[in-house]
Amino acid sequence: MVFANSSGTQPLDVSSSGHQPMISADSAVVLIFNGEIYNFRELRTDLECQRVIFRGGSDTEVLLNLYMAVGESLLSRLNGIFSFAIWDRRRQTLLLARDGLGVKPLYYAVLDDGFVFASEIKALMSLLPETCALDEAALQRYLTFLWCPGEGTPLRSVRKLLPGEAMVVRAGRIERRWNWYRLPAFRREAKPALDQTSAIKSTREHLRTAVRRQMVADVPVGAFLSGGLDSSAIVALAREQNPDIRCFTIEMEGGPEAGATDDLPYVRLVAEHQGVPLDVVRIDAGRMAGDLERMVAQLDEPLADPAPLNVLYISQLAREQGIKVLLSGAGGDDLFTGYRRHRALMAERWWSWLPGPMRQGLAKTTGALDQRSALGRRLTKLFSGAGLDGDARLVNYFRWANRADLERLYSAEFKAALGESRAEAPMLEFLRELPPETSRLERMLALEQRFFLADHNLLYTDKMSMAVGVEVRVPFLDLELVEFAARIPARFKQRGSEGKWVLKKAMEPYLPREVIYRPKTGFGAPLRRWMRHELRELLGDLLSEASMRSRGLFDPAAVQRLIADNDAGRVDASYTLLSLLCIEIWCRTYLDTGGQPRMNGVSYE
After folding, report:
1. Where would a tag sit more exposed on the chain, N or C end, judged by fewer CB atoms within 10 A?
2. Spatial separation of the C-alpha atoms in residues 587 and 584, rounded to whole Å
3. Concatenated DSSP letters of 85-135
4. DSSP character for 420?
């Protein structure tokens, strides 16, 4: 059995008494642990009252002794980010568990001769059969959403343990699997009413507590600073604990892609307002495009998003400056709203009452708009699911490509392997389990918290930061804050077109209004230009007719037509092409090398 900690995480006890694997005093229990337990001091105090003796000061030792004391029920007592494995010699069982929001990854495979697990797919490759079958349903999801919702990976034999899930393995087989944590949206109990004043004040205090709790470390702690509300709020509250906290950001030479906002002026404004030191890593599009293969190899999954490189470059600079822990604003949009799709959802009241045929006509009309303009692309995406109803329309907001367009790219063999598989199936199944009275906005937030965070944002943040030995902590995803945010009425989160209203009000005493109420923007990598310039050679090589024919997944002529249509501006297929590139890079990295990942002809270390 294998557990690979890709980093490792920054221990709360750096002495030898915190080393892993950690074995109990009677040698009956062995623990391997990736992450941090933020309430370990309170747990330790409780155990000491039960006369448990500790050898060191690590949260790992607390976790081990807590299992010795209460067994599997330890999970409900933890507040932290983790994936861990506990081998119990007495019962001959292996307990695997992952934190409630899925900040830390955990992969596993059930093989003919045993059970293997790791925090990275690459650590499993040498243990898998020489011939590994691709998971066509998972590849369809990568193409549809740019990431893969659910337990799937590119390989049929490798699965992800889901957020808030645990399993017991005996004799190499899964004996039991259950959810030890479920999102608040699943609970039907009545929520105590929160008025506007208490919602604002309590939001600030819960976030402050989460930041304070997650700044506990025996190594220096810094912070990401993007100039948006979420990261700026974390910095403002972290400064209360450390007035000189170092902040890190990124500057794209030549500025962001057309239609995106330049973040750097806002970043400098926040740093000056808070009086904190700021380090800026400057990159150019050529460097980012050149690191695409490195990105896919490090992620273990073919996520088609340049944003992971942002995390890598900032984490690398932080490590060079001696910072081994960074606080992130990830999760703010997923708890309090803030994404463009949340505004789109609120705007449905203006057109959702139209008869089905008229809504389908709206989708068709906007789909014919000029895709060379940002406005045309956004309107096309906004109304692409107008003809759908209910949960299907909710899920459609997460799509980057529709089913019909993608099916034209599939080879006959790929289509046959897919059968009736639907990319949206895991998300629709998840929504069916929610209480029927859950509002559409809360249903969408539940999708964000369960899928978009764990399977996309948190996955790439953890993988890319750990590549350079930096741990990223996410105060917005402190479980107490998550539970509290679920009690806030939806009208205090998304107020018309104003997202994150309650958090904005909570941070007004701490941040400039021009930062709090700035337009929402994402990381503006110039992807559309890359497809014409920096990635052109790679595109011609990896997506060539010969390459596509050899791989057998996609129709070579259809892929070439898509490239030509994208060049001519007839469609905006930049992200679909990037997804095709990433899938081919992944296959060359992990399948064509006998299980030894390689990048640019060099073995991956």
Report:
1. C
2. 5
3. EEEETTTTEEEEEE-TT--S--EEEEETTEEEEESSGGGTGGGS-SSPPB-
4. T
The CA distance from 52 to 223, in Å, is 36
- Strand positions, DSSP E, 219-288: 221-224, 247-252, 278-283
State how far the Cα of 42 lies from the Cα of 238, in Å rounded to an integer. 22
Q: Are β-strands 278-283 and 247-252 bridged in parallel, bridged antiparallel, or unpaired? A: parallel
pTM of the model: 0.92
Nearest to residue 255, comparing CAs of 268, 264, 267?
264
What is the C-alpha to C-alpha distance for residues 79 and 124, in angstroms, rounded to an integer?
A: 28
- Provide the residue type at 441 as one letter: L
Could you give the CA distance from residue 237 to residue 279 in angstroms, rounded to a whole number?
A: 19
- pLDDT (tens digit per residue) in 245-262: 999 999 988 766 655 678
Ordered strands of the 278-283 beta sheet: 278-283, 247-252, 221-224, 325-327, 471-473
Count of CB atoms situated within 10 Å of the CB of 557? 11
Using DSSP, state whether 5 is helix, strand or coil: coil
Residue 295 in tokens: 């990105």
What is the Cα–Cα distance from 220 to 264, expressed in whole angstroms? 24
Task: Give the SS3 label for residue 32.
Answer: strand
User: Which residue is associated with the tokens 């600079």?
Assistant: 317
Work out whether the CA dihedral 23, 28, 29, 30 comes out positive or negative. Answer: positive
Q: At what angle do helices 292-299 and 574-590 cross, to 10 degrees?
A: 60
pLDDT in tens, 45-94: 999 999 989 988 889 999 999 999 999 999 999 999 999 999 999 999 99
Q: Are 250 and 314 in contact (CB under 8 A)?
A: yes
Report which residue type is found at 333.
Answer: D
With a CB cutoff of 8 Å and minimum separation 6, the contacts of 601 are: none
